[in-house]
Each structure stands twice: as structure tokens, then as C-alpha cells.
From TrEMBL:
Organism, scientific name: Frankia umida
InterPro entries the record matches: Acyl_CoA_acyltransferase (IPR016181), GNAT_dom (IPR000182), N-acetyltransferase (IPR051531)
PANTHER family assigned: GNAT FAMILY, PUTATIVE (AFU_ORTHOLOGUE AFUA_3G00765)-RELATED-RELATED, N-ACETYLTRANSFERASE DOMAIN-CONTAINING PROTEIN
UniProt-listed Pfam families: Acetyltransf_3
Domain N-acetyltransferase stretches: 21-178
Descriptive protein name: GNAT family N-acetyltransferase
Phylogenetic classification of the source organism: Bacteria, Bacillati, Actinomycetota, Actinomycetes, Frankiales
Length: 185
């Protein structure tokens, strides 16, 4: 996959364009739509989500701050044709986190369309090509079959189970060398 890189936003967040998606920096106007996405029924079955619009605003501010502190983070993901906010995808590595995590959250009614996989591929390519990361992880509950399928499609493989913030999570991993092999295959 070849990524088209758009211009960075005012906060220095690069825009990534895939065939169907725009991965871009966050805007204050995203908060109501983002809250609608994460508060939909079932969205917090596997990953804690903001419970109020104010909490969604705080998470959005955190995501912008992650870019400022780390030089990478989560992008807002929108439909390239309609401009509809679809969720988020990107890299996460808070203090004490077990590694640089590639993660995604896509609007529930758009599951099963390959959007998380498309966004994840763009994020992984950015991490290895632009950030020169050697290893990435993805963290999920052992029963989150949809995310496990996405991780597997992206070339990540089960690595270990770890207790994180009081819960048991499966960690999937991929290295730059494995990505090169997976992309060639």
C-alpha cells in the first residue's frame, strides 16, 4: 500500500490518505460525533470508552497532547468520500505502557467493511517508514474476536497475556522485519 501524505495540520499532525479514508488531526468540532461513536451500544464491551461528552472532549485533548509529547498519536478517521467521522486509529504509548501500540476504534455500523484494517495498515506503514519504529504491539481482550481478526490481517501475532490497569489483555506484536515479510507475501 502506498500512502499519500497530505499537509500537516496546525498542530503538526500529518494527514494520511488511503483509498477510502482520511487520517487527520483532531478538531474541537469532532467531539460530538466522536462521543456518538464511542457511546453507541456495545462499544465499551472490550475497551473502556468515555461516558460523557465532556469525557470525550478530555480524551480528544489527550490525543492531541499525545502528538505534542511523543510526535505521534491517534488520528481522527473520516470517510474520504463523505467526510463522516468514522472513529480513530493511530499509535498510543502512555507512560508505563508495554510498547508502542497500534490501535483503532471504528463506528459500529461500519464494522465488517475493512476500514479498521485499512486504517491500521496506514498507521503501521507510518510507524515503520516515518518513525523508524522496530516493533509495534496491539492490545485487546482475549474475547475481542473482531480486533483479533484485524490484528491478524495486519500481520500481528499473539505474543503474550499481560495485566494492564487491572485487567487481563492479549498482546499481539509485529516487528519491522515481520512487516516486510508480511507485506511481500
Amino acid at each position: 500500500m502506498t500512502l499519500d501524505h497530505g499537509q500537516p495540520d496546525p498542530h503538526g499532525v500529518p494527514t494520511l490518505l488511503t483509498p477510502r479514508l482520511v487520517l487527520r488531526g483532531w478538531q474541537a468540532s469532532d467531539v460530538p460525533d466522536y462521543f456518538a461513536i464511542v457511546s453507541a451500544p456495545g462499544m465499551d464491551d472490550h475497551t473502556p470508552q468515555p461516558k460523557t461528552e465532556a469525557a470525550a472532549w478530555s480524551q480528544t485533548a489527550f490525543q492531541i497532547g499525545h502528538w505534542a509529547l511523543r510526535g505521534y498519536g491517534m488520528w481522527a478517521v473520516e470517510d474520504r468520500t463523505t467526510g463522516q467521522l468514522l472513529g480513530r486509529a493511530g499509535l498510543y504509548e502512555a507512560l508505563g505502557w508495554p510498547g508502542c501500540e497500534v490501535a483503532w476504534t471504528i463506528r459500529r455500523e461500519r464494522w465488517g467493511q475493512g476500514l479498521a484494517t485499512e486504517a491500521g495498515r496506514a498507521v503501521i506503514e507510518f510507524a515503520f517508514a516515518e518513525l523508524k519504529r522496530d516493533d509495534l504491539i496491539s492490545i485487546m481482550t482475549a474475547d475481542h474476536t473482531a480486533s483479533i481478526k484485524v490484528a491478524t490481517r495486519l500481520g500481528l501475532t499473539y505474543n503474550r497475556t499481560e495485566t494492564i490497569q487491572g485487567g487481563e489483555y492479549s498482546i499481539y506484536a509485529i516487528s519491522r522485519a515481520e512487516r516486510s515479510h508480511h507485506s511481500a507475501g
